[in-house]
Design goal:
The protein is mostly helical and 465 residues long. Helix content is 78%, strand content 1%. The chain has a two-stranded parallel sheet.
Length: 465
């Protein structure tokens, strides 16, 4: 089979990795970074899911601003410099790790409300003005490691397709996982044959995610039917009505009052969240932003419908996590349930994106407590989201590592692989000072710098493309 689609993708990326933004796009990025830093300072929302559980202690005054900032920095720095910046430079598309993780930190760091948006706007300016300069400098080097990093696109796009198969296998066993895997493979081959201009994994992922959700809903419905039958039998045998116990379950749950207070706190700031939703949706509509690793390369290629599809599937993996952590901590996600990403990609103009994004965030915030209650009644669906997140991490982890080694080979052959692979292994041996997902792209950048130094020392001859 010809590898023309992969070659076409690489050529499109090579032509489209410039980070030149229009004035409107620059102002949008700067304003949104200012807003997200302000919201982080108010402890209303953060982007990093790992930081959100720590926000309750900060909100209730049990920990200091500096301590919370330290937690945010420790959990975010590796993703910012090891994943966010390399992905933006490689694809020419901005991403949430580069924009929103730093504003998490800067917002929490700011000692005053008015300082937070200034720091956020400053970071936005660094991104829109500094990143393109770094891009130009890197492309002028003897060893152009940014062009080499575009080799990451193919493994990321195609291996990401398998995450529903992994999730089904982990939750429902090898048989169902194997069946879904065969179906996905057949769909990928069929798509490449019949619709070569379409992202080959789009249809396969749709079927895989639908299969996972179908299996989970079926299991929950069966469990509820069995529980209802057992409850009715027990009530008939004892002559007691089990309903009063169910009705008082929330009152006996110590988390219920906390969830209610957190939902009320977020609803209090609904207008601010609507502005946030409008801003994120507008940024996505401008086609300069991708919500994920695979999405960034699809946006760069101009496949906006496929990018929307990919980010829509990710939503299923993050709604339970974001909803439960928001209700438990009182802090929402900067991108909400991330539905504004795929919606923004598909909308025709920024004005409509602002209106729709504001409406989506309003619905999300108002429905948060109801979503939390619904998830409590669907344990298999809730478990499916955890398996989806784990599967996404595993699939992308392998894809990023493999793509980074391909990039290393493109820029330095065996020596490039030795340096990049060696840095990755050293990071593992040292207990992962750089998070695993970001270690390989960071190693490519460091390896590219080292290869350029070796060239200037007349110890290395760049590989000709």
């Amino acid at each position: 089979m010809s590898n023309a689609p992969a070659d076409q993708l690489t050529s499109v990326l090579a032509a489209g990795t410039s980070l030149n933004l229009s004035v409107a796009q620059q102002l949008t990025v700067i304003a949104l970074c200012a807003l997200t830093a302000f919201i982080s300072h108010m402890a209303l929302a953060v982007f990093n899911d790992g930081v959100r559980p720590f926000m309750l202690d900060f909100i209730q005054g049990r920990t200091t601003r500096s301590a919370t900032t330290a937690v945010s920095f420790g959990l975010s720095a590796g993703f910012i410099f090891g994943l966010g910046a390399p992905m933006a430079l490689a694809s020419g598309v901005l991403n949430p790790w580069l924009l929103f993780l730093p504003t998490d930190i800067l917002g929490l760091l700011a000692p005053r409300k008015w300082i937070a948006p200034l720091l956020g706007a400053g970071w936005g300016a660094v991104v829109v003005f500094g990143l393109n300069g770094a891009n130009d400098v890197a492309h002028d080097l003897p060893v152009d490691f940014l062009t080499a990093m575009q080799e990451m696109s193919t493994p990321i796009l195609f291996l990401f397709t398998l995450f529903p198969v992994l999730a089904v296998t982990k939750q429902f066993g090898r048989l169902r996982g194997g069946i879904v895997g065969v179906i996905e493979l057949a769909l990928v081959v069929m798509t490449m044959k019949l619709w070569p201009d379409m992202f080959a994994g789009a249809l396969a992922m749709a079927v895989g995610v639908l299969a996972l959700i179908g299996f989970a809903v079926q299991k929950d419905l069966k469990a509820r039917q069995a529980e209802r039958a057992a409850s009715e039998k027990a009530a008939a045998d004892s002559g007691k009505d089990p309903k009063p116990k169910a009705e008082t379950a929330d009152a006996d749950d110590p988390m219920a009052s906390l969830f209610s207070a957190s939902a009320a706190r977020l609803r209090k700031y609904l207008p601010l969240f609507m502005v946030l939703g409008a801003g994120v949706c507008v940024l996505a509509q401008m086609k300069i932003f991708g919500g994920g690793e695979a999405t960034s390369f699809l946006i760069a290629k101009g496949q906006y419908a496929e990018a929307a599809q990919v980010d829509f599937y990710r939503v299923f993996g993050f709604i339970p996590l974001i909803a439960t952590t928001a209700l438990a901590s009182g802090a929402y996600g900067i991108a909400g349930f991330t539905l504004v990403y795929p919606i923004g990609y598909l909308l025709p103009n920024p004005v409509l994106a602002a209106v729709v994004g504001a409406a989506v965030f309003a619905v999300e915030v108002l429905a948060l407590s109801y979503i939390g209650k619904a998830l409590g009644k669907l344990p298999s669906v809730r478990d499916s989201s955890e398996h989806l997140r784990s599967a996404i991490t595993e699939a992308l982890g392998l894809a990023i590592l493999f793509g980074s080694l391909m990039a290393a080979n493109a820029m330095g052959g065996g020596l490039g692989i030795l340096i990049v692979g060696g840095l990755y292994l050293l990071n593992e041996a040292m207990g992962r000072p750089v998070v695993k997902m970001a270690a390989a792209p960071a190693a490519v950048i460091v390896g590219g710098v080292l290869l350029n130094i070796l060239y200037w020392l007349d110890l290395f001859t760049p590989i000709k493309s």
